[in-house]
Amino acid sequence: MNNHQVYITDEAGMASVFPRLKETLARSPLTAITVLYHSRENFAFHKEFNFLERHFPTRLYISYERLATAPTYILNREAIEAVINANTIPAIVFIISGSTAFTEESKATIEFLHTGPIIIQEQQFTCL
């Protein structure tokens, strides 16, 4: 592996990054993917990730992270820090997708912990 993509998403952002994530798995065999999937309630893409983890067991890691129920987002910084500290791949990029508040907090956390590139994936879908 020579590339590591770390997706940090909330429920709103997962629908926007899922197609890109799938395409990367299918077309870039030297890219590892870590997903820190945040939700307050349900993880809507759980079944899809179960299938993908079986197909790509050495390249895909999913961590399901519960968001606090407070009105503001409280990320599990330790999960992000663990990904950075355990990374053994030369190139790491962070892709963030979610609501505005989630995206801002995620970006600030990564900038504090790491100096690598950060991509903000624009929302292609909205939650009702």
The major pleated sheet works out as: 5 strands, parallel
Q: What is the subunit arrangement here?
A: single chain
The chain-level mean pLDDT equals: 89
What spatial order of strands do you see in the largest sheet?
Answer: 3-2-1-4-5
Task: Tally the helices.
Answer: 4
Any guess at the CATH architecture? Answer: 3-Layer(aba) Sandwich
Tell me the total number of β-strands: 5
Structural class: alpha/beta
Shape designation: globular
CATH topology-level name: Rossmann fold
Number of domains: 1
Which CATH C-level class is it?
Alpha Beta
CATH H-level superfamily title: Nucleotide-binding domain of ferredoxin-NADP reductase (FNR) module
List SSEs in N-to-C order: EHEHEHEHE
**Beta-strand percentage?**
25-35%
pLDDT < 50 stretches: none
Give a description of the structure.
The chain is of the alpha/beta class. It has one domain (3-120): 3-Layer(aba) Sandwich (Rossmann fold), CATH 3.40.50.80. The chain has 4 helices and 5 strands. Strands 3-2-1-4-5 form a 5-stranded parallel sheet, sandwiched between helices. Helix 4 (100-113) links the parallel strand 4 (91-97) and strand 5. The protein is globular and about 40 Å long. The termini are far apart. The model has no long low-confidence stretch (mean pLDDT 89).
